[in-house]
Design a protein that fits this description.
Elements lengths: L4 H11 L6 E7 L9 E4 L4 E6 L2 E6 L4 E6 L5 E7 L4 E6 L4 E6 L5 E6 L4 E7 L4 E6 L4 E6 L5 E6 L4 E6 L4 E6 L4 E6 L5 E6 L6 E7 L4 E6 L3 E6 L5 E3 L7 E7 L4 E6 L4 E9 L2 E9 L8 E2 L6 E5 L25 E6 L1
Antiparallel strand pairs: 1-28, 2-3, 3-4, 4-5, 6-7, 7-8, 8-9, 10-11, 11-12, 12-13, 14-15, 15-16, 16-17, 18-19, 19-20, 20-21, 22-23, 23-24, 24-25, 26-27, 27-28
Length: 336
């Protein structure tokens, strides 16, 4: 650990002694179809929510719809390049990344990706977009200014959610190998592959850029906290069942896991040098598995819906998901 870093951890303890979060209502969207990731644009007070084949855009000041981006097949994530005035959407079913205008919400370009682009991010250092393809085990890299293809990064397994450290490195969980990969955002070289044991099937990922810690949420109800320089897993606090997203608030020094199966939100805080503890568990709703954090207001947003009975499994060993009831899609809001 670098000199002075422990001071930040100690201050984190006092900053987060009472990390109370409470429900603050919900944003009703309705319609039909599933969802995946959502992205809060704190600078422009907007929320971008994936919803089947479209993106719902919400004005965070009013909590009302501000527009839609339509015409896609199966959206996973939304990445924003505010410095360039554009955003990017991973359309997993179409195997495309779409570029859109942040001002008008119109689609400007469609870019061919790998198979099933899923997690997506904009890296401001390289000014590139990284779309991680869940079925072709690679990442499509796009120059955000102009939308030209910059290259492809081959991976050794199924990538999930990525983060950038803001200094030239992109990290991504490899779900089927329980690994964490470090990529140079300029050269596109895979610089490290680290095991996340005892974590199993990591999905959501968040980063503490100051203290160089990565937070992977895992299917076996653990959060694997990793040193972003050495790749060492330094802590594994317990979380809920069925996590699919992580968040970290650099002002409150709190990490979060949204747990869709248990219908809970786990709050993790630093308790000393590489010691982390569960600061609280909040009831959310069944199916609220993804999440985003507004870094200015510190509000958390979790999409979910009401569900009907699950259909009978289609075969031995198969699991079926309960049906989403039309008109019930919403985003739950939690605040301090």
């Amino acid at each position: 650990m670098k000199p002075g870093v422990f001071v930040l951890f100690v201050s984190a303890i006092f900053a987060a002694q009472s990390p109370s979060y409470k429900p603050a209502g919900s944003i009703q969207i309705g319609g039909s179809g599933g969802w995946d990731y959502l992205t809060a644009d704190a600078a422009n007070h907007k929320l971008y929510v994936s919803h089947a084949g479209q993106v719902e855009v919400i004005d965070l000041n009013s909590g009302k719809p501000a527009g839609q981006i339509t015409g896609m097949m199966g959206i996973h994530g939304i990445a924003l390049a505010n410095d360039l005035g554009v955003g990017f959407i991973s359309d997993g079913r179409a195997n495309e990344v779409l570029e859109f205008s942040l001002a008008s919400l119109t689609v400007q370009k469609k870019i061919k990706a790998g198979t099933n682009p899923d997690g997506i991010l904009y890296d401001s250092v390289s000014k590139r977009v990284f779309a991680f393809n869940g079925r072709s085990n690679d990442a499509t890299v796009i120059d955000a200014a102009g939308g030209a293809l910059a290259g492809t990064v081959k991976l050794d397994g199924k990538p999930e959610f990525p983060v950038s450290d803001g200094t030239g490195s992109v990290f991504v969980n490899i779900e089927d190998k329980s690994e964490l990969v470090k990529i140079n955002s300029k050269t596109l070289a895979v610089e490290a592959t680290w095991p996340l044991a005892p974590c199993e099937s990591p999905s959501g990922l968040a980063i503490d850029k100051v203290n160089r810690r990565l937070f992977s949420v895992c299917d076996n109800k653990l959060m694997a906290i990793t040193d972003a320089d050495s790749g060492k897993v330094v802590a594994t606090p317990a979380i809920g069942e069925g996590p699919d997203a992580a968040a970290y608030d650099p002002e409150t020094h709190l990490a979060f896991s949204s747990n869709g199966e248990s219908g809970t939100l786990t709050i993790i805080r630093a308790a000393g040098k590489d010691r982390y503890s569960v600061a609280g568990t909040i009831e959310t709703a069944k199916g609220a598995r993804t999440m985003t954090l507004d870094g200015k207001t510190h509000k958390l947003y979790l999409p979910t819906a009401h569900f009907g009975p699950a259909p009978a499994p289609s075969g031995a060993g198969q699991r079926s998901r309960p049906a989403i009831l039309p008109g019930t899609f919403q985003v739950l809001v939690f605040t301090q």
